[in-house]
Amino acid sequence: MATKGKSARVKGHSFERDMVKFFRDLGFEKCNTSRFESKMKDDQGIDLTNTDPLSVQCKAVEKLGSMHDILDSMPKDTNWNIVLHKKNRKGTIVAMDIEDFREIIQSLITNQIIKP
Description:
Elements: E1 2-3, E2 6-7, H1 8-26, E3 32-33, H2 34-37, H3 39-43, E4 48-49, E5 54-60, H4 67-73, E6 80-87, E7 91-96, H5 98-110
Parallel strand pairs: 5-6
Antiparallel strand pairs: 1-2, 3-4, 6-7
């Protein structure tokens, strides 16, 4: 199934590699794709490794199913689950559970990184 010259698989793998670079630039120097590093993580719906305390699922599709279902399918552990969704000509967004978002904001406040 082609999508204007790029198969969905190639597009998805390319997006994962772009996100590896993004996370490495943020300081997650050991970030890699789970396809390369851990079949177990890949099977759990985690696309990037060494991004603790985040578990990252990458989606580069025009029509995405329920973000809720994707987040629900990810491991329930101490990491915050996020979904990065890239859409043509729309850029990339991040989705996460509101309680995880609350924890991050509370941590930023507690550590005086932000002062509401």
